[in-house]
Amino acid sequence: MKKRLRVLSLFLAVTMLVSLLAACGGSNGNSNASNNKTGTNNSSSTGNNTSGSEPEKDTITALLPPVSANYQARFADMEKEFNELYPHLTLKIEPASWEDMTQKLDTQVNAGSPPDIAYIGSASISKYANLGMLLDISNALTDEMKADFDEVPYQYMALGDAQYGLPAYMAVHSIGGNKQFLEEAGIDWKNVQQNGWTYEEFREAIKAGVVKDANGNTTRYGFVFATAGVTSKDYLSIMAKSAGLPDYFDKDLKFTYTSKNFLGLLEAIRQMIDDGSMPKELSSIDAGKRWNMFLTGQTMITGKGLASFENSARLNNEKIKANDGSAVADSIEAEYIALPVPSFNGADYVPTTVVDGYVTFRGKKEPTEEHTKNVALATYYLASGKVAANANNELFLAPITKSARTAELVEVYERNEDNVKADEIMMSHALPNRTDIPTELAAEAIKIETEVIIPKLQALLAGEITPQDMYDAVKAAAVKSFGEDGVVVD
């Protein structure tokens, strides 16, 4: 009997030992499998499947506009590669034009079923956060993912302690001139690139750039800025940065567009039209028309400008030389020169720093932890590595992730070194992101922008109201929203 008990005890001990070794071996195998996935191309494992079981299949949706020239043409390849990296995940991309991007997104948000990821500007984060429709992925991003990004653009996609997506690029909105026309007008554009210019200097320069025919009709304007459609707010907001109004709120969280600096800016905007340096029909000029006017020689300086416009002009020049009929109709060869916006009211030059990227959304239901991690994986895939590298390369923008800086490029473009230096100087003046503005204040400012500032600006450009009329309307709306003590009075 004792002998049987000893045999049984020995058998149980051996069984337990084998089970323990098997469990340890299984754990190591799972860890290695997970680690092997890390570092593949431009994605990284979040350790989604720690239980050893097959991960559940999931689909991540993304609404993406034509970020760069060939960006949307690569959607099928992007979906395929992401699935190869994560076989249990499907990335489903819905293309959108710039014109209908906001409408499509807002329609889906209002229905309570937005895409998991949408490509929008960081300035719109507060709008959707205030609706409670953004997904915080801060806990789903690995330390490796976070460390891949430059700190300043990374922070632009945050609000408080929440990380609502990842940045695609950081750029400066500038203006741009035709090199030949600038020199014919006697403008020292290299000095402007290095040292900037005041509004008074700019005003005289664009006057000198105007060309009229024998009948007194203007054939070339000094300055044209897109102000219609999706660009309706750009002109004012970009110029305001260098007019002593770098944000809607000052450091004391008082609304700034009630300052006399705002009235001074409005007067300058109207002045350039009254001078004849800008078209009287400026309020009807959209982004496509203003670029067409630049390429056809109808304006010396255009805005808003991005570094990528240099490449767009270069490509059109090549089409003209090839004489294959694919160039813009009636266009001329034009060398694009990047220029800073002027400074107004004696204020310092402050460029409009633009951080666009992949913002993460949630529906009415609370997403599972697993889905949140999967959304983070897809967001990081889009914002880093070769996807980001090639998009930024086509936009003539410097990458903002380590993985993109070392990624393979489809094509390498020649750059104008003067423009590269000018972009660097403009970027050096950029202010850090304001993280101290409460969501409710930011949302109220956007409401005033949408309901008052944009429509009144269109009326001002059309000559239907005066700068004082617009200033008074904005001030009244601001006092109504923020109270007498919540606005700047100077």
Automatic annotation (TrEMBL):
<keyword id="KW-0564">Palmitate</keyword>
<dbReference type="InterPro" id="IPR006059">
    <property type="entry name" value="SBP"/>
</dbReference>
<feature type="signal peptide">
    <location>
        <begin position="1"/>
        <end position="22"/>
    </location>
</feature>
<feature type="compositionally biased region" description="Low complexity">
    <location>
        <begin position="29"/>
        <end position="53"/>
    </location>
</feature>
<dbReference type="InterPro" id="IPR050490">
    <property type="entry name" value="Bact_solute-bd_prot1"/>
</dbReference>
<protein>
    <recommendedName>
        <fullName>ABC transporter substrate-binding protein</fullName>
    </recommendedName>
</protein>
<keyword id="KW-1003">Cell membrane</keyword>
<feature type="region of interest" description="Disordered">
    <location>
        <begin position="28"/>
        <end position="58"/>
    </location>
</feature>
<dbReference type="Pfam" id="PF01547">
    <property type="entry name" value="SBP_bac_1"/>
</dbReference>
<keyword id="KW-0449">Lipoprotein</keyword>
<keyword id="KW-0472">Membrane</keyword>
<keyword id="KW-0732">Signal</keyword>
